Amino acid sequence: MIKRKDGFSGERALVVPHSIIEEMEKHPLMAPLHITDIGYYPKAEYHYRERREPITQYILIYNVEGRGWYQLDGQKYEVKSNQYFILPAGKPHAYGSYENEGWTIYWIHFKGSLAEHYAQGASKPIDILPTIDSRINTRMDLFEEIYHTLEMGYSRENLLYACSCFAHYLGTLRYLQSYRNASYNDSISSDPIMITVHYMKENIGKKVTLQELADNLGYSASHFSAIFTQRMGNSPLNYFNQLKIQKACQLLDFTDMKINQVCFKVGIEDNFYFSRLFRKIMGMSPQAYKQMKKG
């Protein structure tokens, strides 16, 4: 069986230098909770990692698509789409994706005196399922903000901001319902079209079929497509593609991601198809858009 630690198309990873970690460990605001490694692996087929010698970091793995597994304390756990878990520091472990079912994961290694408190109860898989108030896409944007801040360099201000954002990020997972309630909008809770648009945004990085969108409302595919098109002036899947390209534009504008990385972030694996779709909707190539002066 093929086993790979890294080297996945569209992947990103950043390892904080040891000297910077030592600096954070001495700072009163950063010592309680700080990141040592952070990354994103899309469609990571044959992903595998085993550590027989324990490490000092906690490891958060948030699986947004696909299936995987991990072993801890002699027990094997199955990990489905929209689940996360945190491996405790100081314990041997192994994890990976299943053959032909590569998972898409956000992962963060972290340390500090508060780490064990945020990790409490998360050694088993925890569901983060899309709902009308789930705010999954907002959480993904927060991850990107942390990553981009660290990518801009290890100034004291960057490190402090990344640590502050990371505490918030962990809070969105640990205090899930409070996070969801914080911006719950009653006005869309009974509107099937707005429910669908919210579902699309929460699943912007995935392939979603017309039948899945209809099933989310309990409608037949034909009835759902008819009412959506009448209301929004576009078919559901065309509208979803517009949202994907809108998100791609934001990533091109506000991150340093390469175009092939942006593809995976919006759930499109084929670079050529992404470029054609982008040009069709925006009237220019992704490269031209990225170079265009705005504002």
Automatic annotation (TrEMBL):
Instruction: Return the InterPro entries for the record.
Output: AraC-bd, Homeodomain-like_sf, HTH-like, HTH_AraC, HTH_AraC-typ_CS
The organism's place on the tree of life at top rank = Bacteria
Q: Name one GO molecular function term.
A: sequence-specific DNA binding
Keywords for this protein? DNA-binding, Transcription, Transcription regulation
Q: Where is the HTH araC/xylS-type domain?
A: 194-292
| Claim: Endoplasmic reticulum is one of the keywords in the record | no
This protein's name: Transcriptional regulator, AraC family
